Amino acid sequence: MLSVLTAQEFKQTNLLMIMFDDLRPELSIYGRDYMITPNFERLAAKSVVFDYAFCQVAVCNPSRDSLMTGLRPDTVGTYNFGHSWPPHISFPTQLVRSGYNTAGIGKIFHWESTDRNIWSFDAWDNHWYDYQGAETAHMNASIMPDKVLPEEKFRDSLFVDRALSTWSKMVKEPKPFMLAVGFKLPHLAIHVPYKYYEMYKGKSAAWRLTKRELRFPYSSPEISYRCCADFNFQYLREEGRLRFNRTAPLGDINGHFPEDAHEELMHGYIAELMHGYIAGITYLDTQLGRLLDFMDQNQLWETTTVVLSADHGMHNGEKNIWEKWTLFEESTRVPLLISHPLSPFKGQHYPYPVELVDVYATLNEILKVPVTRERACGNQKCKPLSGKSLAPVVLGKQLYEEHFGAEKFGILYRLQNLISQAGGTIMGKRNKHHNQYSLPSDHAIATAVGSPGGGSVVPAEMPILEHNFALSQVIRCAPKQQVLQAIKARSEANGKDRIQRSHFWNDCDINRKGKGTENEVIVLGYAMRTPDFRYIVYFHFNRSTELPMLNLPPFVEELYDHRNETLKEFTHRETFNLAVRPAYQLTIQALRNKLIAFIRSNILFGDH
Asked: Is 157 helix (H, G, I), strand (E, B) or coil?
């Protein structure tokens, strides 16, 4: 065990990592007042809460690979399920080689490992992947509140049982520890103890969506639509006591709902989807509380860093999508909380975009890991970390400068007053990581730096990232003939919004190197989330070289407005694609140039 830190000391800490599956920021700490999540609030009071954290890919495997290696999907070579992170070093391995005991309980990586170079003390996933399929035996509908199975028999309860047993042994060891606990919910199947479902009965008005929010935007291109987890929603019958006898079809990209249909949806499957999803979150809150109780009982807060997040979010009917796999806010945005014993900003919110790929670099510093990543790599690949450290935001400028140097602080961060209002130009140092760019004067001055989201005021002492955008990605394939037909239909519409669209784009992975054909269109999509906008672009992708073709005009672009939004507006924005409006073309051009410059100077693709 490590000794307690004092205000003057900055020493090595233990690590508790808590991961959820498909959890978007549907929590009271993120402005969702109807959510019953007291233990998330309890941890938030001891943490820096990152209001706008985004995953790299809204799919389990590549998101977790990126998080645990600190490398972007382009570098790891994973956008989907077909390829995983070895031979790159993972963060637990660096800790093992730094003298830590490490344990992984539940779902941490998507494809778990019992390799003692990763989990040296304990590794137990309880066959969660098999259980996910077998769990349908308990299901009488798409959402299943269960009055029969005891709460302690649910898989996530069992994960905590094992974690607490392992943890009680780890704290008796002289070595520092990393304990990672990964939960299955709120991933499908949504099977929850009934008492959590009962907590939200009669409250569906709290998560009501408008007709506009329920449909896929007429202004958005087919390529951005991805649905569904299941193409038929099975309605509850007598709260799950009886097998379903009614279904609703899902996945209509052209969905247009008359008023009577809108009311039926809001009181039908949309209400049930969200009811089950949030019931699962409140059940998880109870399990989180068990972990926090152990922290209290063993007086670990002064020696342990805690990080909590999720692999990605989830659409629960927004944009007529029940799925992840998109570049929209619902599927890419995740909770992120970081607690450190010496943080001066406990309970404070950081309202600018950050990324899950930043977590590795952050933990490397705030844990004060004794063996550097380069030394720990050994014979494994050791490409430079893709993310930036959030440590100054967690530790504060004074403590960070004392231990890592003022020069490093100055390179990575700017203070709040280092922004020129003239032309919207970033005034930080010009280097290979941050290219200056001037924005047009029409709509987008704020895009250069942006106002903090949620109407938040950043504490005066809290540093603000100079790198103030987050990237998420997808790779998509489609038959060339269907792509050409869709382009023709849109051009013949003469700018009209409502055209019949088809859902024909599929997800693919770059490990099919060289297998693309001349009859297939392959594109690599990026979502660039700034404080003010979500810019989405799809670049043509060369299958042979595994590189985006940045010199060609983009296949398609989108732009969604997030200016002056509040946390409560999550899921209520991104209903209109501003890219169809000529007034925003200069804004799009500025964001495109910024993104391309960043890709060219910062992103390593595979073995290039």
From this structure: helix
In 3-state terms, what secondary structure has residue 381?
A: strand
- Mean pLDDT on 248-255: 84
pLDDT confidence of residue 521: 92
Least confident stretch, 184-188, 231-235, 536-540 = 231-235
Q: How do residues 518-568 score in pLDDT, each as one tens digit?
A: 789 999 999 999 999 999 999 999 988 889 999 999 999 999 999 999 999
- C-alpha 562/C-alpha 218 separation (Å) is 19
For 238-250, give one letter per residue: b (16+ CB within 10 A) or e: ebbeeebeeeeeb
Q: Say if residues 555 and 540 touch (Cβ distance below 8 Å).
A: yes
Reported as a single tens digit per residue, the pLDDT across 126-168 is 887 777 777 877 799 999 999 999 999 999 999 999 999 999 9
What the block records as the tokens of 382 is 């050791």
With b for 16 or more beta-carbon neighbours within 10 A and e for fewer, the 208-226 pattern comes to: ebebebbbbbbbbbbbbbb
Q: Are the C-beta atoms of residues 313 and 58 closer than 8 Å to each other?
A: yes
Q: Which residues make Cβ contacts (< 8 Å) with residue 56, sequence separation at least 6?
A: 62, 63, 66, 67, 72, 73, 355, 356, 357, 471, 472, 473
pLDDT above 70 coverage of the chain, percent = 85
For residues 115 and 95, what is the distance between their CA atoms, to the nearest angstrom? 14
Q: Nearest to residue 352, comparing CAs of 430, 463, 239, 464?
A: 464
How many residues in the chain? 608
Residue 180 · residue 166 · CB < 8 Å? no
Residues 103 and 174: their CA atoms lie apart, in Å, by: 15
Q: Is the pLDDT of residue 236 over 90?
A: yes
Are the C-beta atoms of residues 340 and 394 closer than 8 Å to each other? yes
CA distance 446 to 591: 12
Please name the helix (run of DSSP H) or strand (run of DSSP E) that holds residue 66, with its range, or none.
helix 60-69
pLDDT band at 8 (very low <50, low <70, confident <90, very high): low
Crossing angle of helices 259-267 and 269-297, rounded to 10°: 30
β-sheet bridge partners, residue 545: none
Residues 572, 573, 574, CA angle at the centre, nearest 5°? 130
Instruction: Say what the pLDDT of residue 195 is.
Output: 98
Query: What would the two tokens of residue 171 be?
Result: 């704290």
CB 53 within 8 A of CB 465: no
**Cα separation, 447 vs 445, whole angstroms:** 5
